[in-house]
Amino acid sequence: xxxxxxxxxxxxxxxQFLTQxxxxxxxxxxxxxxxLQGASxxxxxxxxxxxxYTFSDENGFFQLxxxxxxxxxxxxxxxxxxxxxIEIIPGEDNTSMFLKLIPQPFTLDEVIIHAERPIKVxxxxxVFDAKAFAQGNELVVEDLLKKxxxxxxxxxxxxxxxxxxxxxxxxxxxxxxxxxxNILTKNMPAHPIDKVEVYQNYSNNRLLKGVExxxxxxxxxxxxxxxxxxxxxxxxxxxxxxxxxxxEVRGNLMNFGKKNKYYFLTNLNNTGYDATGDISQLVRPFRxxxxxxxxxxxxxxxxxxxxxxxxxxxxxRTNFNNAELFSLxxxxxxxxxxxxxxxxxxxGDENDFFRNSIQTFEANQTNFTNTEDYxxxxxxxxxxxxxELTYDISKTSSLEAVTKYNNGSTRGFSNLxxxxxxxxxxxxxxxxxxxxxxxxxxxxxxxxxxLLTGRFIDESTPQDYRIxxxxxxxxxxxxxxxxxxxxxxxxxMKFAGVEAHLLDRWENGNLLELQFGNQYRNDNLNSIxxxxxxxxxxxxxxxxxxxxxxxxxxLYLKSRYQLAVINNFxxxxxxxxxxxxxxxxxxxxxxxxxxxxxxxxxxxxxKINNKNRLKSSYSLNTTNAGILDVYNNFVLTGxxxxxxxxxxxxxxxxxxxxxxxxLGEWSDRFFANTFLVYSKNHDxxxxxxxxxxxxxxxxxxxFKDREYLSFNSNLDRYFRFIRSNLKLDxxxxxxxxxxxxxxxxxxxxxxxxxSYGMELRSGFTGVFNYHLGTKWNRNKIEAREFSNSFTxxxxxxxxxxxxxxxxxxxxxxxxxxxxxxxxxxxxxxxDIDATYQLKPNKLTLSLEARNLFNTETFRSFTISxxxxxxxxxxxxxxxxxxxxxxxx
Length: 888
Hints:
By secondary structure, the chain is mainly beta. It has a 32-stranded mixed sheet that branches. Strands 8-9-15-16-13-14 form a 6-stranded mixed sheet. The protein has a 4-stranded antiparallel sheet with strand order 3-2-5-6, with no helix packed on it. Strand 13 and strand 14 (174-175) form a beta hairpin. It is globular, with a radius of gyration of 30 Å. It starts with a helix and ends with a strand.
C-alpha cells in the first residue's frame, strides 16, 4: 500500500514542472469603454475542459493563475453581452490584457439564461453546487461536506475551512446547534441539500457585520425547492447479519418553512457509531474574543474520570456502545421582529471498554512493573434544553436572551485486575447546569456599535467513588482491618458577569474597541476520603479531606486599536487592565489578596496581495490560578493516584509569539498555510510526586521557565491532469518542563513530536474514485538518565465504484503501525459498504461490513518522563449490517 502512496506523490510532484502562468487584465464595454464588473472569465483546454475561472471586480480587473504548457482558450462573457474567446499561449506575457465585450440585447420573456457553475463567488460568500460534488454514496451531510474542496472534517466531526473551524452550520439561514453542529451534520440526510454556502468574515451578530474585525467562517445549507415548506424525512433500519445483536435505527423528520422550521431526529445503534461528536460544544460552546461571549471560558472540571481513551486509533473500532439519541428542535417567527429557538436533546449510552497494559517505572533508582487487566462499563444519560429569543427592537438595535439547562449522569463500573489482585471500582457522577445570558446591541451610528451583556451560570458536579480493595498500606501503615475505600466529593461553581463593549470603525479602516466589565466566580471543592472495613468507617485520614472555598472578582478594562497604516497593512495594539480580588478559605483559615496586572499585546496584519497574507503578534499574559490549583489537601483521582493543589494564591506570567502566513485562498487550486507559536511560561504548575508501586502522591508545585514551540504547515493543491486534490501536512512540537519525582531534585524533561502526512482524493465523474492517505507520528522524551522514543503510522485507502445510478460499492482499508513493539505491531482493516436503490429516491437497500479481517485486539506503545507502557485494546469483532432506508 505504501508503494502506491509514493508513486502517486511522485506523479503529483512531477506536475510542478508545468509552467506557472498568470493571466491578468481589464475587461470593458466596447461601446462605452466603461469597466465591466462581474464579467465571467473561464480558462478551458482544446476539449473544452474547465481549467480555472474568475470574475472581474468593480474596476473591470481580473486575474487567473494556472499551471499549463499547452495551448488554452480564455472565454469571457457578461449578462447582456456576446461571449468572446481568445487563445492563450504558454510562456507569453499575458499580464496586460485588454478585453472588450460587444453588447447583445435580448428579450427576457423570450430568452431563458441558465448559468450553472459548480462554484460561485459573491463577495464574502462562496457557493458550492452540491450535485456537482456528490459522488452518489453520501448518506448524511458530513459525507457531502467531505467532498468539497477546501473543507476538512476530522474523526470527531469538527469542520474546518482552510485552517479555521466553522462557527455554525445553518439551514436556509437559521442555526439550530451553534458549535454543536456535528449533531446536524452526522444525522441529517444529504439528499435535500441544493447548495453549500461558505460565509467568510462572518459575524454572529448581524449588527456587527462590517464593524467588527472578523475572520470567522460559517456554513449555510440551502435546500432544494421540493424540500421546503413541507414535512419530509427518512427512516433507516439495520440489523446484523452473521453477528451478535448488531442494530442501527436512524430517523429524521423535517419541515423548513419561511416562518417556522422543525428538525426532529433520532439515532439508536450499537455499531460503534458516534452520532453526537463532542457534546460539550452543544452544552458549552466556547468562542474566543467574540463580542458578548462573556462567561464562555467558565468551566467546571470533575475530580475523577474512569479512563476509556485509545491513543491514535479510530474511536468507532473500540466503541462498544448502546447509544440512544433523540432531539426535538424548532425555530418560530411569531412576527417579523421576534424569533424563538427551542432545542431539546436527550442522549443515553452504555459503553464497554477493554484494556490490558504493562507499565514500567524508572526514576531516581526506583524500578517496578505494574500489570492491569481493565474492563469498564459506563452508563451515560444527558438531558439538555435551550430557549433562545431574539427581538429586533429596530433596524439598529436588538435584544437576545438565551436560557440553558443541562442534567447529566454517569454510572461507571470497572473490574480491574491489578498485579493479579481483582479490584472493583464504581463511580457515580452527576452534573447540573443552569446558564442564563442576556445581550443588548445598539448600532447607534453606521460604524459604531454598543453592546451590553450579562450572564449567570450555576453548575455542580457531585461524585461518589468506591474501591473494594485497600492498596495504601505503605501510605497509612498504622491502619488495620481496612478492606475498601470511599470518596465523596463535590465541585460547585457560580459565575456572574456584566460587560459593556464599544466598537468604533473609522472611515479609514481603523477600529477602536473598549470593553469594561466585572466578573465574579465562586468555587467550592469538598471531598471526604474514608478508609472502611466493610460498611464501617475506620478512619478519615488527615491531609486527605477538603473543604475549600475560592472566590475571585475581576474588574477589568480591555482596549484594542487597529491602525490601518497603509492599504492592507494594519498594526494592532491591545492593553488589558485587571484588578483582582481573591479570597481563599479552608480549614478555618481565610486569606485574601488584591493583585493588579496589565496584559499588553502588539501585532500586525499584512495582506501583501490577493494571494499572500501575513499575521503576527506578541503578547504578555498574566493568568489567575483556578480552584483545582489552590485546594490544599489530597484528593483521590484514580484507584492509585492522589493529587493536591498548592494551598495558596498564584498568578502565572507567560509571553507568546504567534506567526501565520497564508499563500493563496483556501478555495484556490493551490493553498498553503503555515502557523508557528512560541510560548514561554515564566511561571507554571508542575508536580512534586512520590510514586510507589501501589500508589502515587502528586502535589502541585510552582516552577520557573517552561518553553513551548509548535509549527504546522499544510498545503492543498488540485492537479487537473489527474483530477485529484493533494493535501500535505507537516507538524513539529517541542517543549520542556520540570518536575520532582521521588525526591530526585528538579528534573528537566524535553519532549519532541514530529508529524507528517498526505492525502489524495480524486474527483472523477466516472465509475471510479479514490481517497488515500498516510500520517506518521514520532515522539521522543528525554529526562535525566532517561531517553525513549517511538514512531506510529496510520494509512488508509478508500475506493468507490459507482456502477450506475442505482448501485455503488465502497471499499475502506486501514493500516496501523505502532513502533517499539517487537511483534504484533501492524494491523489491517477492511470495511465494505454496498448500496442499491430498489426504488429511486424512495427505497434503498444497503449492506455494511466492518472489520472483515476480524482483528480482535491491537497493541500500542506510549512513553512518559518516568517510564513506558504497552497496552492492548479489544476491538469490535467482524459484523455485517443489512439496512433498509425509506424516504418520505
